[in-house]
Amino acid sequence: MPWYAFYWFLPSTWQTFQFEHRWALWLIPAVAGLFALRQAFGKRGQQQLQMSLAGAVGTPGRWGRLLGYLRFAVPLSLWASIGFLLVALARPQLVRQLRQEESEGIDIMLAIDVSSSMTETDLKPNRLAAARQVAQGFLAGRRNDRIGLVVFAGEAYSLCPLTTDYTLLRQYIRDLSPALVRTTGTAIGDALARGINRLRDSPAKSRVLVLLSDGDNTAGNLDPLTVARLATGFNVRLYTVAVGKRTARTRDTLSTAGQFDEGILQTIASVGRGAFFRATDAGQLKQVFAQIDRLERVPVQVRTYEDIQDQYRPYLYWGVVFLLVSLLLKNTVLGNSLED
């Protein structure tokens, strides 16, 4: 932007400035006050050269008034010069802050049960829908962490690798349904193995696997406790969440839908140096994720950089211009040569 542009006088431009020496701006009205006092009290002792405009073309009174007004041009230009120089002295600056947040980050794998029993409605609207909603909220609370997703029923699949693309991950979580895995059953051991396999080569200092399930380990080729022991060797911490209300077992009947073995989930969490949680409603499930979120936090270092650009030059140039104008006007009929 050239120094003579009208841009430098716009109020919107001044609102973007920060002044290094704001006190200099207060001198501008003070200088104006000195000029006013000089005009008021110094007029009596002022030597003046009387000129007659009787022979001028037009009305003498109008020319006299015009000449009288023009005599203010010299002090006004001098005051403008001093004012712009004071603005330059105040050092207007454009300050842009760059905020950079750094953290070591955590690698987290979510292993979510999508078996048909997750459509039970003891959690509203159903277990899987509640798990999807709470997992979305869990993502919103993470920053700088890589998160991946494993889904399982009778088999386990790695649906999304570790990523910081939370938008993509939310899309995967939104699409969770029992149709993703056709094989019936609950392969907890296989799900743990899939998640640990993603985490074992992670460079992160903190590696976490969160498993949500509502059933016994009824499928798969791997024993959950054996896999949990392997997790400690890869520095992976295991959290298990039992989703839903337990269905009572009786001597004569055994309801498979909705039952789970809390003992195996508790043991997995204990061996995996994590914690076991039970969520019997959607609100409690949300609290579980909030607690895991608090447990798995790392310090965030915030660095703030300031890009400072001085903008005093245009006002310095205008101050010099008005100073030259005032000197030029003093050498014309508008100046008072008797005082100079």
Automatic annotation (TrEMBL):
The keyword Cell membrane applies. The chain crosses the membrane at residues 23-41, 69-90. Keywords: Cell membrane, Membrane, Transmembrane, Transmembrane helix. SUPFAM superfamilies: vWA-like. The keyword Transmembrane applies. It comes from the Bacteria. PROSITE patterns: VWFA (PS50234). Residues 107-292 form the VWFA domain. It holds the Pfam family VWA. This is VWA domain-containing protein. It comes from Fibrella rubiginis.
